[in-house]
């Protein structure tokens, strides 16, 4: 195991040294890093997309962070789910109930400059789902270009 001299941006150890793995981890977790921003964006968009499917949010609210194709796909899927909920007598008691979505696990992979792919496991009151997103930054703002919900 090797050690390196302490850098001001890294956490302090008792003898003034830190392990390299800790130094790399500290650099990856700096507030406001690109990876951190993508992680927060994809988590928020995922929860919002599941709220669209649950019927508690309109799909148009995601247009700022996604493409029109994704919004249209979510809108159609939400309409189908709403029709199914209204026609199934077993679900009539749950039609107006809000389903809270919780991100259980999230994996962020840097694919290329300005491109990340993210996989999430999300649990709500009804089921656990896998969600995959692709975030790209063609200009200044991040945008979700692919969204698949299992």
UniProtKB/TrEMBL annotation:
InterPro entries: DUF6459. It comes from the Bacteria. Pfam families: DUF6459. This is 3-hydroxyacyl-CoA dehydrogenase. The lineage of its organism: Bacteria, Bacillati, Actinomycetota, Actinomycetes, Micrococcales.
């Amino acid at each position: 195991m090797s050690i390196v001299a302490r850098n001001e941006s890294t956490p302090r150890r008792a003898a003034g040294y830190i392990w390299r793995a800790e130094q790399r981890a500290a650099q990856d977790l700096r507030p406001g890093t690109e990876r951190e921003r993508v992680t927060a964006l994809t988590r928020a968009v995922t929860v919002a997309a599941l709220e669209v499917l649950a019927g508690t949010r309109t799909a148009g609210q995601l247009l700022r962070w996604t493409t029109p194709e994704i919004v249209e796909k979510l809108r159609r899927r939400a309409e189908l789910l709403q029709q199914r909920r209204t026609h199934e007598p077993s679900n009539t008691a749950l039609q107006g109930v809000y389903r809270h979505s919780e991100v259980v696990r999230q994996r962020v992979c840097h694919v290329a400059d300005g491109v990340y792919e993210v996989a999430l496991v999300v649990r709500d009151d009804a089921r656990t789902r896998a969600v995959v997103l692709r975030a790209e930054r063609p200009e200044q703002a991040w945008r979700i270009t692919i969204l698949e919900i299992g």
